[in-house]
Amino acid sequence: MPGRIEKTVFISYRCTNVPWALAIYQNLTMHGYDVFFYYQSIDSVNFEKVILENIKARAHFLVILTPSALERCKEPGDWLCREIEMAIDEKRNIVPLMLEGFDFDSPLVKEVLINKLAALRSSNGLRVYAEYFFEGMDKLRQRYLNVALSDIALHPLSAEIKETTDAKKAVTSKLAPVETNALTKQEKYEFNYSLNRHRIPIIGVIQAGEPIPLPTGLDFGSFSPEDSVDIAVSLFPSKERSRDLFALKVQGESMIDAMVHDGDIIILKATQEAHNGDMVAVWLSDRNETTLKFLFKEKDKYRLQPANPSMKPIYIDKNESLEIKGKVVMVIRKV
Question: Which active-site residues does the annotation give?
Fold first, then answer.
């Protein structure tokens, strides 16, 4: 079957990016495209059917990507994630619209774009800026939507969903044009979002149980991350907002009463000092072993106290080498 030019479009976006979605909708509609995006709420009975049928009925799938857009895709049932997966399954012409600050190589994005969503990285994306919005839309129409499509099967809307879709489009068509300054405000918001995220390297694994041999790749000296985690700076106490932070993945259940479980990620401040009762990562260099425990300094020994009543403390003589490598400041729960 020869390729054909299609002018049907679905816009996928986060609710925080309504001005961008509406501006793109208005521009494409003005140029003869049949565009759908859910500007107003849809009753819960029809919501899923309206969204999924409209993806199947439209050849092009635009997804608006900002620094924060994909953050919730890890949550079960996230709708942006479901929409992208449906577009991939239906072989739509997927065009990521990458706004200021979005980066496919950011740790947050890499963490999300796995399995089926990994296909989004290979889509032919377009970088769009508020200052050059109309130039970006020209390029979108002329280069990204004006393509011959041969492997896309379009499905007509059912009568019920078509009625709802037409009603929503009628309301949206009466809205005032989006001003460029509204897009600029969105751009600044997302830019500030990216500035206020702290990328913390995950440098290895630590045992929350009996000490284990130092894992390969756990180099406390270099802090060279194989992975990282994005955390809002505002979540940290002000005194901990420094570059001296690193993260470790937890193995074991010895700290469960301290709300640290197997698979969690702990954020630590690199330090060699700790007070009694601090939760610390310690390196027993004589044994080449590491562990996560509460630290207590006693008369002639150190007590490494688990937070699990079924486990006994570990005692380290003062003549043995014990190095504190970090103090826990935050726990990220594995869901």
Answer: 254, 293
